[in-house]
UniProtKB/TrEMBL annotation:
Protein name (Swiss-Prot/TrEMBL): Zinc finger DksA/TraR C4-type domain-containing protein
Gene3D superfamilies, per the entry: DksA, coiled-coil domain
Domain of life: Bacteria
Keywords: Metal-binding, Zinc, Zinc-finger
GO MF entry, a single one: zinc ion binding
Zinc finger region(s), dksA C4-type: 96-120
Lineage of origin: Bacteria, Pseudomonadati, Bacteroidota, Bacteroidia, Bacteroidales
Domain Zinc finger DksA/TraR C4-type: 92-119
Length: 129
């Protein structure tokens, strides 16, 4: 890995397959969250007693906020994966945007949308202080 400017086409194809699988799963999870947020096919408290209804509605609002946050995080993850696919097409995938060195394969397998190596992240933190 040391001294190479980029990953070769075979390695990029391997990462592309991994990212496409993760993207498919992430999109499915996002769609499920959005379905839940839109109350498609859900049970409601319309026919319950007023006291219980008030408590239940408060809980529903909190749940909806949590699901909205989860959906936002999932969408950000999807966008990161889509950006990674663009970098693969441009043959710039796996190059740390801070150091310019190759990000280790192990990191890319764990976090396929990563744009910085651990070393690059440490440099960023150091510069922020």
């Amino acid at each position: 890995m040391e001294g190479r400017a980029r990953y070769n086409d075979v390695e990029l194809a391997e990462f592309k397959q991994l990212i496409e699988e993760k993207l498919k799963l992430a999109t499915r999870e996002y769609d499920q969250l959005m379905d839940s947020l839109m109350n498609r096919g859900s049970n409601d408290v319309v026919d319950t007693s007023p006291t219980y209804k008030t408590l239940e509605e408060g809980s529903a609002v909190q749940s909806k906020e949590e699901m909205t946050n989860m959906a936002a995080r999932q969408l950000k993850f999807i966008q990161g994966l889509q950006s990674a696919l663009v970098r693969i097409d441009n043959k710039t995938y796996g190059i740390c945007r801070v150091t310019g060195k190759l990000i280790p394969k192990e990191r890319l397998r764990a976090v396929p949308h990563a744009t910085t190596s651990i070393e690059g992240k440490m440099q960023e933190k150091k510069n922020k202080i």
